Amino acid sequence: MTSEIFSPALPPPPHAFNMAAHVLAAGALTPDKLAMQIVGPSGAQRWSYARLIAAVRGAGTLLLQAGLVPGDRLVLRLGNGPEFPVAFLGAIAAGLVPVPSSAQLTRDEITKLARDLDPAAVIASQGVALPDHPARVIDAQTLRKAHDAPPCDFAMGDPSRLAYMIFTSGTGGQARAVMHAHRAIWARQMMFDGWYGLGKQDRLMHAGAFNWTYTLGTGLMDPWTVGATALIPAEGVEPRSLPLLMKRFDATIFAAAPGIYRQILKHHDHLDLPHLRHGLSAGEALPDSTRAGWNESTGTKIYEALGMSECSTFISDSPARPAPPGTTGYAQTGRHIAVLNEQGQPVARGTPGMLAIHHSDPGLYLGYWNAPEESAARRVGAWFLTGDTVAMAEDGAITYLGRSYDMLNAGGFRVSPLEIEEAMAGCPDAGEVAAIEIDLRADVSVIALAYTGSATHDQLATHAQTCLARYKQPRLFRHFDSLPRNRNAKLLRKEIRAIWTQGDI
Q1: Other beta carbons within 10 Å of 382
Q2: Contact 255, 206 (CB under 8 A)
Q3: What's this model's pTM, rounded to 2 decimal places?
Q4: Alpha-carbon distance 1 to 137, whole Å?
Q5: Is 230 helix (H, G, I), strand (E, B) or coil?
Q6: Which helix (H) or strand (E) covers residue 314, if one does?
Q7: Is the pLDDT of residue 284 over 90?
């Protein structure tokens, strides 16, 4: 049997469609219900659906009155406050194209991105770095009265037209603006049962930054699409404080990257979360030790998903269909995926290969902005290549082996760094670990392990001998004070390798 899964596709969205209108439709039926709460140790800021909808449509009007016209690109330089979703959905409602960006970017970083986008305007909070010579700057303060502005009409149109863009690193490590159609929100309903177990009664807390695809969808748009409540940690809330907020504000689902779960468990042995049904994890592979620790501490499970900025999540563990141990999960109902060889053909089940998504998936991106060659390089025939190396079991379960560029060459064998890291994390006092490949000389490389704990090299080497085949065992070890991660807590193996090679630790 070949590694290809195809289940009945979703019915198409209406011919006249607007993403923001779709996100807010369920909330319009329950205007007095809480759409979101900005929560912190001192209390919460409460937004009803009536207030959210009025603010979003009012923001659309204010942006048009500022001189923007449908199709204009609008860079968002905003923090994790209510102005972010109001500006994002308000722009989409009015037919503009919002482009979220991390509030932590420096002036030089955002200038480089803006130069490529050539936006018509930037909307920014005070104190956030702006690009050089922006065409127009709109103060986010103007959105505070958006709910009093006349409501804009929803700009309806072809569901496959451009709705928004989100930044990702792209295949070459250079930041790329990923173009998403209005229909991307329509595809997300495959996650409701296929990953979340999400219903209108839920109160979902997400611990990530809004400019990240994971947070933007899972933390905001998806709860609102079903009429649920989004719980948003206020600016400055530390991970160690999240359990208190989950308990105080009756969170039923918690979503975060694995690094956030690790930080919570570092500070709490037991967590009393009476309303929490389960957690969600994405962004990088979830270590078994973190999964087990959370289950023991809270009595709840974490359901993991595999995704990317170009398609969000599409492989997942879920309450409805739990993943077998050691696997990420199954293709969500409605997805068409395959595991391909270098010739672009599905491999036999159980054989590692490149995970691919069929071009017909309604959640698949439109391409990278101003990068047609890079966009084309991600396609082989009818397939989009994710860059993830996986294996598909006989029952369709997917085992994630790592990014194609992260795979290690050990004595001619292809080895997943995740497998090595999972094994070595079990060594007492290892701390956080990262497996990389180090070149010793031309055509000679070895597996190396960066770690943050107090274990000795001999202890690490002895542990490796007990739990890894010889060709998978790290040959070099080096202590790091901390492992470099990006703003969404993803491990930066390329940076670890560069630091190691330079000897600057």
Answers
A1: 13
A2: yes
A3: 0.84
A4: 56
A5: strand
A6: strand 312-316
A7: no
Q: What is the mean pLDDT of residues 400-429?
A: 80
> Which tokens hold the place of 99?
């482009």
Residue in the block written with tokens 């999540």: 313
β-pair type (137-139, 444-451):
unpaired
Give yes or no for a contact between 505 and 480, defined as CB atoms under 8 angstroms apart: yes
Q: How far apart are CA 19 and CA 164, in angstroms?
A: 10
> Quick one: which of 143, 33, 35 has its CA closest to 83?
143
Rounded Cα–Cα distance for residues 138 and 72 (Å): 14
% of the chain with per-residue pLDDT over 70:
96
467-470 long-range contacts, CB within 8 A, separation 24+ = 467/423, 467/426, 468/420, 468/423, 468/424
Give the span between the Cα atoms of 269 and 214, in whole angstroms.
Answer: 27
How many Cβ atoms from other residues are within 10 Å of residue 442's Cβ? Answer: 6
User: 444 CB contacts (<8 Å, ≥6 apart)?
Assistant: none
Backbone φ/ψ region at 366: left (φ over 0), alpha (ψ -120 to 50), beta: alpha
Q: 134-149 burial, b for 16+ CB within 10 Å, e for fewer? A: beeebebebbeebbeb
Question: pLDDT band at 469, cuts 50/70/90?
Answer: confident
